Amino acid sequence: MDDFSWTAGVSRDDAQRYSRQILVNDFGVKAQKSLLSSKVLIIGAGGLGCPVGIYLAGAGIGTIGIVDYDTVSIDNLHRQIAHKESEVGKRKTDSLKNSILALNSRICVEIHEGTFDSKSAMEIVKNYDIVCDCSDNVATRYLVNDVCVILNKTLVSGSALRWDGQLSVYHFGEDCPCYRCLFPNPPNPENVTNCSEGGVLGPIVGIIGSLQALEVLKILGMKESSYAGKMFLFNGRDGKTRTIGLRKRDKNCAVCGDSPTVIKPIDYVLFCGAGAHDKVENLKILADSERISVEEYRDLRRIEKPILLDTRPNLEFEIAHLPEAKNITLSEVKNLEAEKIAQTLEATNNRDIFVICHRGNDSQRAVEILRDKFANHKIRDIIGGYDKWAKNINQDFPIY
């Protein structure tokens, strides 16, 4: 036997790169070799997808797939840590791929550009061992879940909003529920808030995304999961965590039950009543006679000081508002008596009342409510709200 022979569990390069995790008790060489040969799909290259992608790349996952339809914007950068100022306007898939390869050039990164929909989902998911749902909309969550069950793939799902984050692992083992077991029917789209409306703190998505990556490493490397059949809840405001047990797989579930009725992807936009994206929908629920453009409102306020009701939350009102605006939130519009609203607005002599919000959705809802409370006033919403005002009238007005 010559002096240069040895028995290797991993290569010299892999030993150097991954030694600190190989040395971890219960992980070791076997788990590392499993990671190197595994393929993981990340759906959503945003706040959750960025830490998932970076940590999986660092750990040595052999192939990472990325699905996203969007481009990098400046308001992404506080939380989507794989993207940079120089990437603004570029595709998120390309940006995340560049960051992954800058960290670990030895792995394979596959890009799936475009919306993850019923037509493409099965073909994409079938090539991966495990899926990370890092999306930010209900339609995609149901689609990802159903496809993972149909193709027998484990799903690691995370979400975050404001101060809160949550994580669960679906379809891992005989009794583990899927997403549909817990939520057989989608929520009313009007009651769903995403981070573009409700906000989110960057470290919240960082924590949840990191935990998603950790679950992937345990599942692929050790065939174990801490959150299969459980849900991890994190409140960053109070610094508290909680893990709750979930009910077992529902034998009557439409997709993973004993007699499933969903055996292929359905129309999830129709099912959920909302698009498969995290963008705010532009509603049109009023007649044209009850609406006014930002240009028309600009011309009107040059002649007189109008009565302007701003329905946004107080925090948004503090960001910026027109000087004549009075802040009465949509919730207050619903609950306050007409007399109190009139007093706040100084609405006298049957003058017209104009309503504005962030993008022109809540203002329309407010007009519907105010019709009944102010029968003697003409009430109109401002189309597109402050977002349209900033784009069309005053480019210095803050956009958020």
Automatic annotation (TrEMBL):
UniProt family annotation: In the N-terminal section; belongs to the HesA/MoeB/ThiF family. UBA4 subfamily.
Cofactor(s) required, per the database record: Zn(2+)
Pfam family for this entry, one: Rhodanese
Pathway connected to this protein: tRNA modification; 5-methoxycarbonylmethyl-2-thiouridine-tRNA biosynthesis
Keywords: ATP-binding, Cytoplasm, Metal-binding, Molybdenum cofactor biosynthesis, Multifunctional enzyme, Nucleotide-binding, Transferase, tRNA processing, Zinc
Superkingdom to which the source organism belongs: Eukaryota
GO biological process: Mo-molybdopterin cofactor biosynthetic process; protein urmylation; tRNA wobble position uridine thiolation
Binding, ATP: G47, D68, D75, N76, L77, H78, R79, K92, D136, N137
EC number: 2.7.7.-, 2.8.1.-
Organism: Caenorhabditis angaria
Protein name: Adenylyltransferase and sulfurtransferase MOCS3 homolog
Gene3D superfamilies: NAD(P)-binding Rossmann-like Domain, Rhodanese-like domain
